[in-house]
Amino acid sequence: MATDTVQFKYPRRRVIRGMIRRVTRAIFGAISDFRVEGTENFPTTGPLLVVGNHFSFLDPVALLAIVPWPIEFVGGFTVPNAPAGVGQLRKLWGYYPVYRGTGSQIAFRAAQAVFDQGGILGIFPEGSSAHALLRPPRPGAAFMAARSHVPILPIGMEGLVDVFPALRRGRRHRVTIRVGAPFGPFAVPGRGRERRQKLDAIGHEMMQRIAELLPPDRRGHYSDDPAMRQAAQALQDYVWDEEPEG
After folding, report:
1. Contact 152, 180 (CB under 8 A)
2. CA-based angle 21:107:84, to the nearest 5?
3. Do residues 51 and 141 touch, judged by C-beta distance below 8 A?
4. For a tag on the chain, would you pick the N or C end, based on fewer CB atoms within 10 A?
5. Is residue 38 assigned to a domain?
6. Is there a contact between 145 and 49 (Cβ–Cβ < 8 Å)?
7. What is the DSSP letter of 15?
8. Residue 246: inside a domain
9. Residue 153 Cα distances to 34, 117, 210, 221, 239, angstroms
10. In sequence order, what are the residues at sequence separation of 6 or more whose Cβ sits closer than 8 angstroms to the Cβ of residue 155?
């Protein structure tokens, strides 16, 4: 709606975000052996939904540092596993909150408005960074992609969970960001259970595409190894189903 494109303007905060991007690139270069592969897969324009694995509180910071265009994020209202400084960075950058475990529509309205303006939006389909193995997606990312009929860009991020442990041992850990080929867009007709099954299939395709960009020992639920898939089953609880945010 026109009202939403005014409320959720794209792009925005250009000056402060430009400064944040330059600083984060320099910091990642200083504290890690930071590499990006597959940059030829970056589309030149939007609309576009960028999806990635979420193993570390550093994931959004790494993502904003490497993409070549203005990007918006939707993310959890709280970041319980992150240091206080990450919360301050989130406020400086500005993001659209997801109140996990509730029926809040703010993030979905913001996403649609960004896409309507030809923008790029980033989201982590797993919904939290509680574990360092790939888990099934929450339904939000697939719903956003299907409702807006936008292409999806998968990104796999490896090594961010080990950056600070390595620094404490006096060394720089290798971080590799892999950019996959865009896929979609999708249209999801139908209603009820049939529609939900189609959305679930889109969500799983997102995660499978991300898994292909990760080393085998991080693929979790999407591993070819039955033992690893079984181990990942124990990591699928979503705490906000019982204790909603907000």
Report:
1. no
2. 50
3. yes
4. N
5. yes
6. yes
7. H
8. no
9. 20, 18, 9, 20, 27
10. 50, 51, 52, 53, 63, 177, 178, 179, 180, 210, 213
